[in-house]
Amino acid sequence: MDAMKKEHHLIVSVSPHVRSEETTNRIMWSVSLALLPAALAGIYFFGLKALFVTALCIVSSVVSEQFYIKIIGKKSVAGDGSAFLTGLLLGMNMPASLWSFSPFTVHVPVIASFVAIVITKQLFGGLGFNVFNPALIGRAFALISWPKAMTIWNEPTAAFFAMDAKTTATPLGILKEEGITKLIEVFGDKISLYTHLLIGNRAGSIGETSAIALLIGGLFLLYRGYITWHIPVSFLGTAAAIAWVFGGKGALFTGDPIFHLISGGMMLGAWFMATDYVTSPSMRKGQIIFGIGCGFLTMIIRLKGGFPEGVMFAILIMNCFAPLIDRGVRSKVFGAVKQEKAKESGK
Amino acid sequence: MGLATFKGGIHPPDKKTLAANSSVVESKPPKIVVIPLSQHIGAPCNSIVSIGQEVKKGEVIGEPAGFVSSPVHASVSGKVVAIGEFPNAMGKMVNSVVIENNGKEEWTSLKDNPDYMSLSPEELKEKVKASGIVGMGGAAFPTVVKLSPPKEKKIDAVLINGAECEPYLTADYRLMIEKPKEIIEGLKVLMKVLGVQKGYIGIENNKPDAVSKMKEAASGEAGIEALAMEVKYPQGAEKMLIKAMLGREVPPRALPMDVGVVVQNVGTALAIYEAARFGKPLIERVVTVTGEGIAEPKNLMVKIGTKISELIEECGGFKDGAGKVISGGPMMGFALSSLDVVVTKGTSGILVIPEAEVAHTDDFGPCIRCSRCIDACPMGLMPSMLSVLSEKGFYEEAKEYNLFDCFECGSCAYVCPSKRPIVQLVRLAKSMVKP
Prior knowledge:
The complex is a heterodimer of chains A (347) and B (435). Chain A contains 16 helices and 2 strands. Chain A is mainly alpha-helical. Chain B is an alpha/beta fold. Helices cover 27% and strands 20% of the residues of chain B. Chains A and B meet through helix 2 and helix 16 of A and helix 9, strand 15, strand 16, helix 10 and helix 13 of B.
């Protein structure tokens, strides 16, 4: 009884009193983990330079975030993993050729990281409040500021330690400039082209080339419930449909959807960039609209635009619409529709 | 075909094994009971006893003061020693009558009338009213009000809520195992009062033995059916239960009676049976005392007005240092600041969470718009938006996001990876604007 009478300091808080084990940190690190196969494939194919560029982006992103937090005096969010993830994604969206001292382009990843973290994310209010995907703005900024450096593509499978790899064009670049016949000729035959695109030994950004590695990561996120099917399926489905109908030469329905799905940044974009929680719609229905928009814009740019690749701009354009889409597809409140129907039938 | 359910919801670990297998036992007679005159939704009762007065068990001590109200009875025999304000589980001061138990267990009147089913609906309803029966699932809404629908509302089904979807709690489960026949009898009384032909008992499928017990008890009863439902929180919320069992959706801000349904909890059904047959007022109820922080989890039959501290003592006291003591379940229960709070008609459980396991949420992060709360919300709301708007003080805007359709089940806060206090923010917004 004495023990009972002793003053107990009980914790009082609002319900619910139990919480799931999921945390923001765990989500961020899981997405980073899911990117690992593709990042490793990129490093394998493009060598040490790829590793240096990626690492530089990660370090610059994390340092930029800490720098900003220090200056502004914000509560530290170190370890939430989001700056690491942004850095990793940015690095995977850059050509390995940027690790070059003559001409000097090592500053490009550093500045792009700063733009991604400070301007795109923190100035808008930090994690959760940015309108645009930080890594993609970082890349877009770099592409516009240093168009030449950002489009020097190394040949894959050069010697791992080589610092002066040969340059070549990306498959989408060849398609845009010289057409499909030339593209197939470069790779030998169609099967060989597909194989290279799936495995990743082709020119491109560090983390975008291995379609299989990206698919493994994407399916992992899907399986673990970190993303849902809505954005990737609507994105890839729309792109495939447009590629098939309008992607052929001359006649309709003669395009090659498979090529378009596994080339360029399509896989990286659809599974990892467009699915960014903060910059995509929250409503599942809205995510389908968002995905369709991304797929549509990507293919418009690829087929009709001046750039060979359109994933980045497609996602950035759709980012602007995400809040609007959410407003448009507001969920049905439990019981609401039936009430309206009942009213109508009552009239 | 899958089991009956609703859209949304979550799957917290149910933790029911802690107390599920301990039969309901009578708790030790309390030396003193503090009986609040307001244990229900609606007008508080007026005390009709005075200090020094001797009362018997079951004697009315508080008269209802309005239509939505319910009388309060003495739960022990003894002397009224005080009348005054005492804090309830929510920390609100409530006028209460304090009775010192003389241990004689003297009843006012308790007559067995085995032929109670031949009473008229009006007579049965009067018994429910006089017995002070309120919803025992937690909301404590006066039952007689639910049994008095306006003429234009045609009721065609009575649902008995055996979902018990709150983790840890096993009070309703034990009743379904131990008194299935009596629950069915209570349902029959309800059906007679409301003049309906259809009665259902809905039970979450994590209690298969309760499902089979209730099915067995319902077999041979015309129009009564027991159904298993998917295990998903908040399956036991009225609207979700009606959706799962009958496929009907109660419109926003409407009541079950608007779709022709009356819902009662299994404990309430049992109390209704006891009121109809014996004229027994609601002076005791089953309380699950459970959690990792209690030495011996039990299901106790407790006199209304018994202090929580006595129940904890009876269950072997705290284990591993109590961090939080909750009245009700972990999803919607109230954290108590004092163990002097008493058991009321709506107290379904006392849950003790050890200090080490208390989920600390004072250090929450920003909303990352992951959509988990939107998927979890059984009401089809956007809890993410509500929490952000409330956090920034945009309370009017929160109304546009159907703020007042939220019934605070806590599914959103449970799944939130940023550990945002979404329910708290919703309550804040609700308190700042008019519906």
